[in-house]
Protein backbone atom coordinates (compact mmCIF):
# COMPACT_ATOMS: atom_id res chain seq x y z
CA UNK A 1 0.00 0.00 0.00
CA UNK A 2 2.78 2.38 0.97
CA UNK A 3 4.66 1.51 -2.21
CA UNK A 4 1.52 2.20 -4.28
CA UNK A 5 1.02 5.63 -2.72
CA UNK A 6 4.62 6.53 -3.47
CA UNK A 7 4.12 5.55 -7.11
CA UNK A 8 0.98 7.71 -7.39
CA UNK A 9 2.77 10.68 -5.85
CA UNK A 10 5.70 10.23 -8.24
CA UNK A 11 3.34 10.08 -11.26
CA UNK A 12 1.50 13.20 -10.10
CA UNK A 13 4.70 15.19 -9.68
CA UNK A 14 6.03 13.98 -13.02
CA UNK A 15 2.83 15.15 -14.72
CA UNK A 16 3.12 18.61 -13.12
CA UNK A 17 0.16 18.16 -10.79
CA UNK A 18 0.31 19.78 -7.35
CA UNK A 19 -1.77 17.54 -5.06
CA UNK A 20 -4.58 19.39 -3.22
CA UNK A 21 -3.79 22.65 -5.00
CA UNK A 22 -6.10 22.50 -7.99
CA UNK A 23 -5.29 21.84 -11.67
CA UNK A 24 -1.69 21.93 -12.74
CA UNK A 25 -0.22 24.47 -15.12
CA UNK A 26 1.38 23.15 -18.31
CA UNK A 27 5.06 22.36 -17.87
CA UNK A 28 7.32 25.39 -18.49
CA UNK A 29 4.46 27.91 -18.48
CA UNK A 30 4.07 30.45 -15.66
CA UNK A 31 0.84 32.15 -14.75
CA UNK A 32 0.65 35.95 -14.99
CA UNK A 33 0.93 36.29 -11.19
CA UNK A 34 3.90 33.89 -11.07
CA UNK A 35 5.64 35.78 -13.87
CA UNK A 36 5.08 39.10 -12.08
CA UNK A 37 6.47 37.71 -8.84
CA UNK A 38 9.46 36.19 -10.61
CA UNK A 39 10.41 39.33 -12.53
CA UNK A 40 9.33 41.81 -9.86
CA UNK A 41 7.40 45.04 -10.37
CA UNK A 42 9.07 48.18 -11.67
CA UNK A 43 9.05 51.04 -9.15
CA UNK A 44 6.92 53.26 -11.40
CA UNK A 45 4.37 50.55 -12.05
CA UNK A 46 4.30 49.66 -8.36
CA UNK A 47 3.54 53.25 -7.38
CA UNK A 48 0.78 53.53 -9.98
CA UNK A 49 -0.69 50.21 -8.88
CA UNK A 50 -0.72 51.33 -5.25
CA UNK A 51 -2.30 54.64 -6.26
CA UNK A 52 -5.06 52.87 -8.19
CA UNK A 53 -5.68 50.43 -5.33
CA UNK A 54 -5.73 53.29 -2.85
CA UNK A 55 -8.18 55.29 -4.94
CA UNK A 56 -10.65 52.42 -5.27
CA UNK A 57 -10.41 51.21 -1.67
CA UNK A 58 -10.62 54.70 -0.15
CA UNK A 59 -13.55 55.79 -2.31
CA UNK A 60 -15.55 52.62 -1.59
CA UNK A 61 -14.86 52.61 2.15
CA UNK A 62 -15.80 56.27 2.64
CA UNK A 63 -18.90 55.88 0.49
CA UNK A 64 -20.16 52.90 2.50
CA UNK A 65 -19.80 54.83 5.76
CA UNK A 66 -21.16 58.19 4.54
CA UNK A 67 -24.38 58.00 6.65
CA UNK A 68 -22.26 57.68 9.81
CA UNK A 69 -20.15 60.63 8.69
CA UNK A 70 -23.29 62.71 8.13
CA UNK A 71 -24.61 61.88 11.60
CA UNK A 72 -21.26 62.67 13.20
CA UNK A 73 -21.00 66.04 11.43
CA UNK A 74 -24.56 67.04 12.31
CA UNK A 75 -23.98 66.16 15.99
CA UNK A 76 -20.82 68.26 16.04
CA UNK A 77 -22.19 71.31 14.25
CA UNK A 78 -25.91 71.55 15.09
CA UNK A 79 -26.90 72.74 18.56
CA UNK A 80 -30.36 71.18 18.08
CA UNK A 81 -28.78 67.73 18.45
CA UNK A 82 -26.80 68.51 21.60
CA UNK A 83 -27.04 65.72 24.17
CA UNK A 84 -28.82 63.30 21.82
CA UNK A 85 -27.59 59.81 20.99
CA UNK A 86 -26.66 58.70 17.50
CA UNK A 87 -29.89 56.78 16.88
CA UNK A 88 -32.02 59.66 18.20
CA UNK A 89 -30.26 62.08 15.85
CA UNK A 90 -30.74 59.64 12.96
CA UNK A 91 -34.48 59.42 13.64
CA UNK A 92 -34.82 63.21 13.85
CA UNK A 93 -32.95 63.80 10.59
CA UNK A 94 -34.85 61.11 8.69
CA UNK A 95 -38.18 62.31 10.09
CA UNK A 96 -37.57 65.95 9.23
CA UNK A 97 -35.57 65.70 5.99
CA UNK A 98 -36.06 62.16 4.69
CA UNK A 99 -33.64 59.23 4.30
CA UNK A 100 -31.73 60.98 1.52
CA UNK A 101 -30.39 63.45 4.06
CA UNK A 102 -28.08 60.69 5.31
CA UNK A 103 -26.37 60.71 1.90
CA UNK A 104 -25.79 64.46 1.74
CA UNK A 105 -22.57 65.30 -0.06
CA UNK A 106 -22.46 61.88 -1.73
CA UNK A 107 -20.73 63.04 -4.93
CA UNK A 108 -18.31 65.40 -3.20
CA UNK A 109 -17.40 62.65 -0.75
CA UNK A 110 -16.70 60.10 -3.48
CA UNK A 111 -14.71 62.45 -5.71
CA UNK A 112 -12.67 63.85 -2.84
CA UNK A 113 -11.64 60.51 -1.40
CA UNK A 114 -10.98 58.99 -4.82
CA UNK A 115 -8.29 61.63 -5.41
CA UNK A 116 -7.09 61.61 -1.83
CA UNK A 117 -6.72 57.83 -1.72
CA UNK A 118 -4.71 57.70 -4.93
CA UNK A 119 -2.26 60.37 -3.78
CA UNK A 120 -2.02 59.16 -0.19
CA UNK A 121 -1.29 55.50 -0.86
CA UNK A 122 0.80 56.13 -3.97
CA UNK A 123 3.07 58.64 -2.24
CA UNK A 124 3.17 56.69 1.02
CA UNK A 125 4.44 53.52 -0.62
CA UNK A 126 6.88 55.48 -2.81
CA UNK A 127 8.30 57.54 0.08
CA UNK A 128 8.58 54.50 2.30
CA UNK A 129 10.48 52.45 -0.27
CA UNK A 130 12.73 55.39 -1.18
CA UNK A 131 13.68 56.13 2.44
CA UNK A 132 14.40 52.47 3.16
CA UNK A 133 16.56 52.28 0.01
CA UNK A 134 18.53 55.38 1.03
CA UNK A 135 19.11 53.98 4.50
CA UNK A 136 20.25 50.64 3.09
CA UNK A 137 22.65 52.46 0.74
CA UNK A 138 24.22 54.06 3.83
CA UNK A 139 24.57 50.71 5.52
CA UNK A 140 21.64 51.19 7.88
CA UNK A 141 19.04 48.47 8.32
CA UNK A 142 16.06 50.83 8.27
CA UNK A 143 13.45 48.10 7.87
CA UNK A 144 14.50 46.63 11.21
CA UNK A 145 15.73 49.57 13.29
CA UNK A 146 13.80 52.59 11.99
CA UNK A 147 10.50 51.22 10.71
CA UNK A 148 8.14 53.34 12.80
CA UNK A 149 9.84 56.71 12.12
CA UNK A 150 9.88 55.92 8.38
CA UNK A 151 6.17 55.01 8.45
CA UNK A 152 5.33 58.21 10.35
CA UNK A 153 7.33 60.52 8.06
CA UNK A 154 6.08 58.84 4.87
CA UNK A 155 2.41 58.94 5.90
CA UNK A 156 2.62 62.58 7.05
CA UNK A 157 4.27 63.74 3.81
CA UNK A 158 1.78 61.82 1.68
CA UNK A 159 -1.23 63.20 3.56
CA UNK A 160 -0.09 66.82 3.29
CA UNK A 161 -0.12 66.52 -0.51
CA UNK A 162 -3.33 64.46 -0.54
CA UNK A 163 -5.12 67.14 1.50
CA UNK A 164 -4.61 69.65 -1.30
CA UNK A 165 -6.77 67.42 -3.51
CA UNK A 166 -9.26 66.59 -0.76
CA UNK A 167 -9.80 70.11 0.60
CA UNK A 168 -12.25 71.55 -1.99
CA UNK A 169 -14.48 68.47 -1.95
CA UNK A 170 -14.35 67.97 1.81
CA UNK A 171 -15.29 71.59 2.56
CA UNK A 172 -18.07 71.38 -0.03
CA UNK A 173 -19.37 68.15 1.50
CA UNK A 174 -19.47 69.64 4.99
CA UNK A 175 -21.42 72.64 3.70
CA UNK A 176 -23.93 70.36 2.00
CA UNK A 177 -24.26 68.26 5.16
CA UNK A 178 -24.62 71.11 7.66
CA UNK A 179 -26.91 73.20 5.46
CA UNK A 180 -29.32 71.16 3.28
CA UNK A 181 -30.33 74.35 1.44
CA UNK A 182 -26.82 75.45 0.48
CA UNK A 183 -27.05 73.99 -3.05
CA UNK A 184 -28.92 71.34 -5.00
CA UNK A 185 -25.77 69.47 -6.11
CA UNK A 186 -22.01 69.32 -5.68
CA UNK A 187 -21.49 71.23 -8.92
CA UNK A 188 -23.91 73.93 -7.84
CA UNK A 189 -22.20 74.17 -4.46
CA UNK A 190 -18.78 74.59 -6.07
CA UNK A 191 -20.14 77.24 -8.43
CA UNK A 192 -21.67 79.13 -5.53
CA UNK A 193 -18.46 79.07 -3.53
CA UNK A 194 -16.39 80.26 -6.50
CA UNK A 195 -18.94 82.94 -7.42
CA UNK A 196 -19.17 84.34 -3.90
CA UNK A 197 -15.58 83.94 -2.70
CA UNK A 198 -13.34 83.14 -5.68
CA UNK A 199 -11.38 80.03 -6.64
CA UNK A 200 -8.74 80.38 -3.87
CA UNK A 201 -11.51 80.05 -1.27
CA UNK A 202 -11.77 76.35 -2.17
CA UNK A 203 -8.47 75.87 -0.31
CA UNK A 204 -9.15 78.18 2.63
CA UNK A 205 -9.97 75.14 4.72
CA UNK A 206 -6.68 73.33 4.01
CA UNK A 207 -5.25 74.30 7.41
CA UNK A 208 -8.13 72.85 9.46
CA UNK A 209 -8.27 69.78 7.23
CA UNK A 210 -4.54 69.21 7.80
CA UNK A 211 -5.16 69.50 11.56
CA UNK A 212 -7.54 66.56 11.26
CA UNK A 213 -6.12 64.48 8.43
CA UNK A 214 -2.39 64.37 9.21
CA UNK A 215 -2.77 62.90 12.74
CA UNK A 216 -5.48 60.59 11.42
CA UNK A 217 -3.41 59.26 8.53
CA UNK A 218 -0.22 58.88 10.59
CA UNK A 219 -2.07 56.91 13.25
CA UNK A 220 -3.92 54.88 10.63
CA UNK A 221 -1.03 53.89 8.37
CA UNK A 222 1.73 53.57 10.98
CA UNK A 223 -0.73 51.88 13.33
CA UNK A 224 -1.85 49.44 10.66
CA UNK A 225 1.73 48.57 9.72
CA UNK A 226 2.55 47.86 13.37
CA UNK A 227 -0.63 45.98 14.26
CA UNK A 228 -0.76 43.90 11.06
CA UNK A 229 2.68 42.47 11.82
CA UNK A 230 1.29 41.06 15.07
CA UNK A 231 -2.30 40.28 14.08
CA UNK A 232 -1.89 39.19 10.48
CA UNK A 233 -5.55 39.83 9.63
CA UNK A 234 -6.16 43.05 7.62
CA UNK A 235 -9.74 43.36 8.88
CA UNK A 236 -8.79 43.13 12.56
CA UNK A 237 -5.75 45.35 12.09
CA UNK A 238 -7.86 47.89 10.20
CA UNK A 239 -10.47 48.02 12.98
CA UNK A 240 -7.85 48.63 15.67
CA UNK A 241 -5.88 51.17 13.62
CA UNK A 242 -9.06 53.00 12.60
CA UNK A 243 -10.29 53.27 16.17
CA UNK A 244 -6.95 54.65 17.36
CA UNK A 245 -6.80 57.11 14.45
CA UNK A 246 -10.30 58.37 15.26
CA UNK A 247 -9.40 59.14 18.87
CA UNK A 248 -6.12 60.87 17.94
CA UNK A 249 -7.70 63.10 15.29
CA UNK A 250 -11.07 63.79 16.95
CA UNK A 251 -10.21 67.32 18.20
CA UNK A 252 -9.20 68.32 14.67
CA UNK A 253 -12.41 66.86 13.29
CA UNK A 254 -14.53 68.87 15.74
CA UNK A 255 -12.68 72.08 14.86
CA UNK A 256 -13.17 71.44 11.13
CA UNK A 257 -16.89 70.72 11.52
CA UNK A 258 -17.42 73.93 13.51
CA UNK A 259 -15.36 76.02 11.13
CA UNK A 260 -17.18 74.77 8.07
CA UNK A 261 -20.78 74.73 9.20
CA UNK A 262 -21.57 76.16 12.62
CA UNK A 263 -25.27 75.48 13.08
CA UNK A 264 -26.54 79.03 13.44
CA UNK A 265 -24.45 80.52 10.66
CA UNK A 266 -25.07 77.64 8.27
CA UNK A 267 -28.84 77.70 8.79
CA UNK A 268 -29.22 81.47 8.56
CA UNK A 269 -26.69 82.44 5.90
CA UNK A 270 -25.50 79.27 4.20
CA UNK A 271 -21.93 80.62 4.45
CA UNK A 272 -19.12 78.43 5.74
CA UNK A 273 -17.36 79.88 8.77
CA UNK A 274 -13.98 79.31 7.11
CA UNK A 275 -14.31 82.72 5.47
CA UNK A 276 -14.69 84.53 8.81
CA UNK A 277 -13.08 82.45 11.55
CA UNK A 278 -9.85 80.68 12.39
CA UNK A 279 -8.75 77.59 14.27
CA UNK A 280 -7.76 79.81 17.19
CA UNK A 281 -11.18 81.43 17.31
CA UNK A 282 -12.93 78.05 17.38
CA UNK A 283 -10.61 76.73 20.08
CA UNK A 284 -11.21 79.90 22.07
CA UNK A 285 -14.94 79.30 21.98
CA UNK A 286 -14.55 75.84 23.54
CA UNK A 287 -14.96 76.10 27.30
CA UNK A 288 -14.81 72.39 28.17
CA UNK A 289 -12.12 70.04 26.78
CA UNK A 290 -14.78 67.35 26.47
CA UNK A 291 -16.33 69.40 23.65
CA UNK A 292 -13.34 68.41 21.51
CA UNK A 293 -14.58 64.82 21.64
CA UNK A 294 -18.22 65.42 20.77
CA UNK A 295 -19.37 62.79 18.27
CA UNK A 296 -16.49 60.46 19.13
CA UNK A 297 -18.54 57.25 19.31
CA UNK A 298 -20.06 57.43 15.82
CA UNK A 299 -16.70 58.54 14.44
CA UNK A 300 -14.83 55.63 16.05
CA UNK A 301 -17.38 53.26 14.55
CA UNK A 302 -17.11 54.97 11.17
CA UNK A 303 -13.28 55.01 11.15
CA UNK A 304 -13.04 51.39 12.26
CA UNK A 305 -15.34 50.33 9.41
CA UNK A 306 -13.56 52.61 6.94
CA UNK A 307 -10.10 51.30 7.78
CA UNK A 308 -11.14 47.65 7.94
CA UNK A 309 -12.79 47.72 4.51
CA UNK A 310 -10.13 50.02 3.09
CA UNK A 311 -7.14 47.88 4.04
CA UNK A 312 -8.98 44.66 3.16
CA UNK A 313 -9.52 45.96 -0.39
CA UNK A 314 -6.14 47.63 -0.65
CA UNK A 315 -4.20 44.50 0.29
CA UNK A 316 -5.98 42.57 -2.46
CA UNK A 317 -5.77 45.22 -5.18
CA UNK A 318 -2.26 46.57 -4.84
CA UNK A 319 0.61 44.94 -6.75
CA UNK A 320 3.08 42.71 -4.94
CA UNK A 321 6.28 44.59 -4.08
CA UNK A 322 9.36 43.53 -6.02
Q: Your description of this structure?
A:
By secondary structure, the protein is mostly helical. The chain has helices at residues 2-14, 32-39, 43-64, 66-77, 86-97, 106-137, 142-145, 147-178, 186-197, 206-231, 234-259, 263-269, 279-285, 296-317. It has one domain: Alpha/alpha barrel (Mitochondrial carrier fold). Helices cover 73% and strands 0% of the residues. Helix 8 crosses helix 10 (206-231) and helix 10 (206-231) packs antiparallel against helix 11 (234-259).
CATH C-level name: Mainly Alpha
Return the string of H and E elements.
HHHHHHHHHHHHHH
Largest sheet: none
Low-pLDDT runs? 1-39, 262-275
- Write down the overall geometry: globular
| Classification by helices and strands | mainly alpha
Task: Name the CATH superfamily classification.
Answer: Mitochondrial carrier domain
Integer tally of domains:
1
Q: What fold name stands as the CATH topology?
A: Mitochondrial carrier fold
User: What is the β-strand count?
Assistant: 0
CATH architectural arrangement: Alpha/alpha barrel
Helix content: over 70%
- C-alpha termini separation: 45 Å
Strand content: under 5%
Question: How many helical stretches?
Answer: 14
Mean pLDDT: 79
- Round the Cα radius of gyration to an integer and report it: 24 Å
Throw out a few tags for this protein.
73% helix; Mitochondrial carrier fold; 14 helices; 322 residues
List the helices and strands and how they pair.
Elements: H1 2-14, H2 32-39, H3 43-64, H4 66-77, H5 86-97, H6 106-137, H7 142-145, H8 147-178, H9 186-197, H10 206-231, H11 234-259, H12 263-269, H13 279-285, H14 296-317
Helix pairs in contact: 3-6, 3-14, 4-14, 6-8, 8-9, 8-10, 10-11, 11-14
